[in-house]
Amino acid sequence: MQIEQLQGSIVAIVTPFKDNGEIDLETFDELVEFHISSGTDGIVVCGTTGETPTLSDAEDAQMIERCVKKVNGRVPVIAGTGSNSTVDCIKYSRKAVELGADALLVVAPYYNKPSKRGMYKHFSQVAKNVDAPIILYNVPGRTGSNIEPATAIELANNYKNIIAIKEAGGDMNVFAELLANRPDGFKVYSGDDFLSYSANCLGADGCISVVANLIPADFHQMMKSSIDGDYKVARELFYKYRALMELMFAESNPLPVKTALALMGRVNEVFRAPLCEMEDDTREQLKIELKKLKLM
Fold first, then answer.
1. What is the tally of structural domains in the chain?
2. Residue from 245, 235, 242, 240 nearest 212 by CA
3. What domain of life is recorded for the organism (predicted)?
4. Cβ atoms of 107 and 143 closer than 8 Å
5. Can 241 be counted among the known catalytic residues?
6. How would you label 161-183 residue by residue, b for 16+ Cβ within 10 Å and e otherwise?
């Protein structure tokens, strides 16, 4: 599949660790196979769900290279390469391309809160200096900055390699504005599992998902059905997993999803500081829901 045609369920895959805190590459390989055999349409490696803020540059490169090698062209591999430094973002992006990533997921610069003009300049510099498809990533709740729909559309119109946006601002009006004004071929992905079904009904192209780590086959089916207009099937799946999707953000991502994977026996329940284990009450809620869904 060409990255420009990518639709459906794109998992933001976790980074598993061994008990000693080192990356567990063998378990990561198993997760990749789990997703491909379950119908996942694409994989984002080294995103926020992959705990990339705690990975070294060398570990980032190791994970991208490992993912590309294990996937072996079966689905697109998208590497998270964002930074609040434009120079560093270009450096990380070029490295990911060198390692074989099919596309880049570039988050809005965080903490330093650029102006609208600064935001445009950041992404335009990345687009001009990196020869690869770029997916913008807007998640104001985590970055403290916002890619306005008009800015995203202007970037898409001016740079052919800016091919999509992952929108995680939680506002359906933003989806409507993006979808009404996007140029031909520009993809809009939800970055919020809970809104993904509704966004697809408006014409979005799927979701870069957290909960797909747990239910890849059913989340793929929910995305496919809602994109294809089979709303009965999509709606049933949405309500089946509604509570689970909400629980994915009961505490900071990726604590709930990685805890759930541990409860399911797929990874160790190991995080790198400053992340740590979930609170007992929310962990118990998650455990109850997983048992209800027969996932553990």
1. 1
2. 245
3. Bacteria
4. yes
5. no
6. ebbbbbbbbeeeebbebbbeebe
Query: Which amino acid is located at 206 in the chain?
Result: G
Domain harbouring 81, CATH code: 3.20.20.70
In a domain, 282, yes or no: no
What is the CB neighbour count within 10 angstroms for residue 287? Answer: 15
Residues with Cβ within 8 Å of residue 117, at least 6 apart in sequence: none
Buried b (16+ CB within 10 A) or exposed e, 81-95: bbbbebeebbbbbbb
What's the domain range around 107?
Answer: 6-228
Separation between Cα atoms, residue 43 and residue 59, nearest integer Å: 17
Using CA atoms, how far apart are residues 150 and 177, in angstroms rounded to an integer? 8
Asked if residue 80 belongs to a domain, the reply is yes
71: phi then psi, degrees, rounded to nearest 5: -65, -40
Q: How far is CA 37 from CA 40, 41, 71, 169, 207, in A?
A: 8, 10, 11, 31, 18
> Per residue in 228-237, is it b (16+ CB within 10 Å) or e — as a string?
eeeeeebeeb
137 catalytic residue (yes or no):
yes
User: pLDDT value at position 75?
Assistant: 97
One DSSP character per residue, 87-134 reads HHHHHHHHHHHHTT-SEEEEEPPPSS---HHHHHHHHHHHHHH--S-E
**Beta strand pairing call for 8-12 and 42-45:** parallel
Binding residues for pyruvate: 49, 208
pTM recorded for the entire structure: 0.96
According to the model, what pLDDT value does residue 3 have? 87
Which of 92, 120, 137, 241 does the annotation list as catalytic?
137
What pLDDT, in 10s, does the model give residues 146-183?
Answer: 999 999 999 999 999 999 999 999 999 999 999 999 99
- Domain assignment present for 47: yes
Select which of 70, 92, 120, 166 is catalytic: 166
pLDDT digits (tens, 9 = 90+) for 68-104: 999 999 999 999 999 999 999 999 999 999 999 999 9
Residue-level pLDDT at 128: 98
